[in-house]
Every structure is written in structure tokens, then in C-alpha cells.
């Protein structure tokens, strides 16, 4: 039964091929060739990685995590660009935040696979620390889009590792407090319902935590809000009221919606997107590449790509379930959450149901580091699929 | 195991929910609202651009261009793309008020139409705009055909001028749009629809910065229909000469036309203005100067100013008396002793003439003879005949508006002075003083009755078919008699200074007293006496005697015309 599940690799390659096509349409030959070279390199690396047994990754997890954290420090110190996101390496730029996602999945998998029982608040502390270090460093670059990814990855892996859902909900309730604190009445409503829920659960630790953390966060958030960068505030405001400032942030959302909507069922045809061609669309080959797909290939393409993603995630989910090795299973869930969350956030942004957070579409958007990081994950997943019945 | 399955289901449900949301909202965008977003995408990229139709040229009678077009640079904006920074910068470069640009933007309902905000910008402004065009969104510069008057102020009153249409006018003129020009006076106004043409429409594709990327083949453009040319009867050389003859006088008017067919050769009014100045827009001070009521350069004195016509009325009084069979040519009245008493009120003559017959009274312009003749035939006959000759009525020239002047009759006097108006009013009327007022053109048209054997010319400036004269019931013999007298005026009477070589010219001088200072000098005449080709009326304001100022100018105009048309030759 030692057989690699190549269908996972196939879907990843199909998605990348669609990406290459759209990068040609949106960025021209230059970007196309660069991405093509990246994809070639990446493919070789993927095949090599798929031959490495997952056990080795587990043993090296703390080391790999440490390297990615060091890279994040290094980029903050040595990067000459602003925002401080890239290293320039022989004409190619490397983005350490992409590799930090890998490192973080490894360390969480390493840590959680050694834990027998997960049920107390103190079990959150170490994973939270492991995540907040890279997330905080990426946030400082600043790259809010990349920083946010670490949280859902952690939540998903904790849950998969056995942490009860209710516990996670209570633990993260201050986050809901933070969001609702912008309106005092909504926040009071949440706090009263949440209080009732805690009261019915009748667990002292939950009640204590809930009633200390929530009011604290609810009061702190407005203070933190004022310390945000103006463009970050703008992004959030523009999401809440997109027609307020048609030439600003929401202008991107409007143009993206126009692009996708105007594609209708079959699209305007390859290379014929007017929103794209005349540059009404922002970030055409990176964050908003999905809008170009919608414009040039229509609803059909959106359904096809969604189905491809679902199929890939479904494969990963099943692999995580059938894999006997706990580390391998957790890592697979971590990767799946990473891809799924990022693709959902990106697509949701382009169709205007989620805020603009500057997240690339996995496998499709232009960007060598993201491609390499995603395919490294795919390589590891392939190795896992080969050894899935081993402990 | 059960726990694991539960976790698996939670992930599964999460995935399905997330991607269902994506597909459902994409369905909403692309299928339900696809049409709307397609339209929005098209509006993003497709902008409508008007191509200005060149205004028709205007030619003089010999085919010389007296109004044409020249290329001028314009700046236009697409309101949908413009931002406040660009407006500010634009206002600064073009040196216009920001609020004026905003007002124009608010005027146009469709924000996807390219809107002209400045015509005829200078090369310096153009290069400044071109320099910063990268940072300015939705701005465009281009070339358009602008009205040009090669002879500047020479035809200012006959041709009139064009300037930009106001927002109030657009409301009533749906075929016009912001930035269009419209004829304001003269022929430009009368023949506006003939000259204007129809602007073309082009659909252009623009990128996100509003820069033109190309034309669109899938939208049918509307071709430009240039305005039609206008052939006038005006004579360039005559206008140029007249400007020289009138050089030393500040205010006045001169008209000349063919009495047989009404073709107007000359329509001159002074002071003049330069119609080219209106194209790029006038400053407030320039506009105020043009509207100064003391100078009134925009006033066409030939058709709009009313003057007392002085002694030039006398031939009409005489003709009325003869035609109504009230007197014979030999009729005499009390001799002229320089003054005539009506009761205790003295009515003077400008000279002591002694006893005169009708003919001599015209030749020597004796006031005292005409006081008595006017009283003899009475106000009703005078008013009836003056009305026949066109006083108090529009001449029918193709220029609007036209002043009708004032022709007083019995009712008019009663309204103004009550029942007890006196014979003194008739005295004054008989020598063209007091209440009667006429435009130079009206006076000229009335004289065509002598030039034309009893027909009144209807003057016109264009060769477009129209009625050339109107017939009036009049005794041809009486007309012939007065015409002889008019010939005598120039040959040996008050109008000798109008004499041109050995050509027989008929004419009459007039000296109009007026409250504004020195008398207005008037002369009306036509030549050659037999089969006349030109009828001239010259009025020089506050210049003195008709015989000494207006007569020589009229003579020179007649001479210029006759020489040019080889009706005489200089030995």
C-alpha cells in the first residue's frame, strides 16, 4: 500500500497552470516567464520532498520553526523595501512570511502530537505563543493579510488535536468582544448572551476567564484601533461602508465586483477583460487575479476553480483522517486550513463579501515564495500519503 | 472514534459552507446582476466625445473669406474620472475660477461625456497641462476649429459675433451643449442654424487614468456635419475704404446697397469691436468696456440707432404734395427771409433764400418753404406718405433686431402732447426735426423710391432667395420731378461735395439738430442717376453740416464702388 496519492499533486498543478495562464493575461510575458521558472524549480523540489519520510520533518520541527522565525527577524532588520516583506536574491524576491506558515504548522504539529490531553486554558498558552511570535513579526512588516493566517491555522490544529469546540469558543470570546466593542450596544448584547451561556455551563474557570478577559478586551480595542496605521483603518472602514469613498479603498472592491459581474456566465474571453486591460482592476496578477478569472471566463470558471479547491481540501481532510501518525495528521490539517482560509478570504474579498486584506490566492496568484511554500506543503502531504498507514 | 468523526464533519461542513458562499455570491454578481455590472464596466471604459463641427465660412460678394475657422487648443474633462486635486490644478493652470469648472461639471447630466472647459488655451497653458497630464486624471487636450474673422473689426456689425452658450440658454435649446458657440448678433445670429453644422460623436476607450486608448469600432460614430457656407452681398473693398473715409470720426454709420435688387454692399457702424475677442472669452473689464452706454461699440448704428433725419425728409414731403395733387411744381409760398413767425414764435432758416419754387427749395434746402408746404398739405398726408416710404416700419433686412424708428402722426401727437399740439410740430416734422426718428438703413430704403421709380428696395445681406423690393402706389412723373431736384442738389446745391467726376448723382443733405452736442451730418444719395447701381446713406454723429462732412464721404464711397465695377474710368 506504499503509494503516493498523485491526484493531490495533479490538482495543485492544474490550479498553478490556470494561475500561469491568468498571470500571462494580467501581467504579460515578463511575469509569466518568472512564474514559469518558479513553477519549474518548485516542481522539482516538490518531487524531492515527497521522498522524505514525514518522521524527519517532525524531528526537525523545532529547528525549522526557529529558522523561519530568524528569517522573519532578518527581513525586519535587513529589508530595504517598505513594507519590509522581501529579501532580494538574484533577481528573485523571497518572502519569509510564506515559509513562516510552514514552520508554524510544523511546531504546532510537533507540540500538539506530544500532548495527550487538551482541555484547560493553560493548554492554549504554548500554542498561542508559538503563533503570536511569527504573526507579530509579520504584522510589524507590516503585512496584516499574512499575519492573520496564523490564527485560524492554530484554531484548526487545536481542534483537530482534541481541544473541545466550546473551550475554543470561550477562549476566543475576547476576539468577538474586540470586534463588537466598536458599538457599545452590540457588545453589551454579546456579553449578556455569552454570560448566560457561561452561567449555564457552571464551570468556575470558564466564568472567571470569560468575565475578566471580555471586558478588558472590550475596553482595550478602541485604544488599539487608534494605534493602527491609517491605511489599515481605511481598509476596515471601507469594508464596513464600501460606497462611502468611491475613489479610495472601496474603489478596488467596486472595480473588482464590476469585473467579476461583467464576466457573466461565460466571461469576456481570454485576454479580453476590459476592467483588467484598462487597469481599472488593482493588483491584477496578485491579490485580484480571481477577479480577472471571473471577468474573462465567467461564472463557469468560478465554479470550476471552487470545485477544484474543494476537491483538494477534501482530499487533504480525508488524508488527515486516515493517517495513523498524529504529527502527519495534524500537519495535513494545518496545511489544508492554510490553503482553505487563504482562498476563501481572497475570493470573498474579490466578490465583495469580505474585507480587503491583501491575501494571495494559493497556487494561482503571482509570487514565487507563496508558490514554493504551497508546493513544499504539497510535497510533504504527498510523502504523508505514501506512509499514511505507518505509525 | 466518534469524536474524530465529529471533528471531520465540522471541517467538512466548514469547507462546504465557505465555498457555497463564494459560488452563491458569484452567481448573484454574474447571473442576477451581470447585466448591471456589464453596463458599469462599459461605462468605465467608454466615453462619449463630441467633435466640434467647423462653422460655415462667410464670403463677401467676390468670394473673399470674411469669416472662417482656425485651429485652437481646448482642454476638456471627463467628470466621472476627475478628482478635486485635478480640478484645483486645472483651475490654476488655465487661470480660471475653480467654481466655474465645478458649475460646468454639475451642468452635464452624463458624467461619461468629455466636457470642454476651456477654449483657445495658449501654448504655454497647453504645455503646462501636457507636463502634468500623468498626475491629472480625466483631462484631455485637443484641437478644434474656432471661428475666426480675418478682417477683425471690419465687419463687426454686419457679421456679428459668436460666444459660448450660457447654462440658462441650454435649457431652452436642447440641441446645444456646454462649451458650444452660438451666434450673438449680425449674420452669425440670423443664420445660426445654417452656419452651425452638427457636431460629430466619437466613442473612445479610456483607461483608468482617463487617457484615450483608442477608438471603438463596435459603437457607430456620428460623423461631423460641417456648417454650410454663407455667401453674402457685402463688398470687402468698400468696407475697407469706408473704414478709411470714416477714420477721423468717432461715431457714425454708413450703408450702401443696390436699390434695384436690395443687395447690401456695405453695412458699417462706428465705433467697432473685434469679434475675435469673444472666442477665448472676455474678461469682466473687457465686457464692461463693450457695454459702456456712452460708446456702445456693440450697437449696430446702421439698423439700431435712431436719428432725426433733418432735411433729408424734404424730398418726401415734396413727393407727397405732388402725388396727392395738392400742389404743382411751380407752387410758391411766402419768400424766405431767414425767419418765419408762427404767431410770436420764430422758425428760422439756415440762409435767406427769397422766393423759391419746389425744385429750388429742395436744391437749396430751404426750411421756410417746407414749413409752409408741410402746413399746407397737413399732418395726415405727411404721415400717410412717410409710412408708405417705410418710416416707422422695419425694412425687412435679414438682421435682427431692427429698430423701427418713430413716425409721428395725428394720433401720436395727441397721445404725446394732448389735444392742443400745435402747427409748430408740423413745422418741425417738415424739416425732419423734433419727433421723427429713423435708422440710417430706413432712410436709405426710403430713398430707393427715387432710385427705383417708385419701388422700395428690401435690403438683404445674403444671396439666399428673398423678396427684393415692394411696389407702392405713386405717380411716376412726380418721382421723376423730385429725382431731378435731387440731381440738382449734388450738381449745384447743398450736396456739391458729393460730386464724383462727371457722373450724375442724386442726393440730399441733412443736418440733424440733437441734444447731444454738434449736429449730426447726413447725406443720402444714389448713382448713376439713370439706372442706379448704388444707394448710399452716411450719418456722422456730432460732426456738423450734412453737406460738409457726410456728403464727401458718401461721394468717396460711390466713387470707390463705381471705379471698382468699371462704371466709370479715371482719365
UniProtKB/TrEMBL annotation, chain A:
GO terms for molecular function: glycosyltransferase activity; lipid-linked peptidoglycan transporter activity. It is found in: Membrane. Signal peptide: none annotated. It comes from the Bacteria. Keywords: Cell membrane, Cell shape, Cell wall biogenesis/degradation, Glycosyltransferase, Membrane, Peptidoglycan synthesis, Transferase, Transmembrane, Transmembrane helix. InterPro entries: Cell_cycle_FtsW-rel_CS, FtsW/RodA, RodA/MrdB. PROSITE patterns: FTSW_RODA_SPOVE. The chain crosses the membrane at residues 6-24, 36-57, 63-82, 124-140, 145-162, 168-200, 207-225, 288-314, 326-344, 364-384. It is a multi-pass membrane protein. One of its GO terms (cellular component) is cell division site. NCBIfam families: rodA_shape, RodA_shape. This is Rod shape-determining protein RodA.
UniProtKB/TrEMBL annotation, chain B:
It is a single-pass membrane protein. This is Penicillin-binding protein 2. It comes from the Bacteria. Residues 252-559 form the Penicillin-binding protein transpeptidase domain. The lineage of its organism: Bacteria, Bacteria division WOR-3. One of its GO terms (biological process) is cell wall organization. The keyword Hydrolase applies. GO terms for cellular component: plasma membrane. Its main location: membrane. It comes from candidate division WOR-3 bacterium. Keywords: Cell inner membrane, Cell membrane, Cell shape, Cell wall biogenesis/degradation, Hydrolase, Membrane, Peptidoglycan synthesis, Protease, Transmembrane, Transmembrane helix. Residues 51-215 form the Penicillin-binding protein dimerisation domain. It is found in: Cell membrane; Membrane. The chain crosses the membrane at residues 12-32. GO terms for molecular function: penicillin binding; peptidoglycan L,D-transpeptidase activity; serine-type D-Ala-D-Ala carboxypeptidase activity. It holds the Pfam family PBP_dimer. The gene is mrdA.
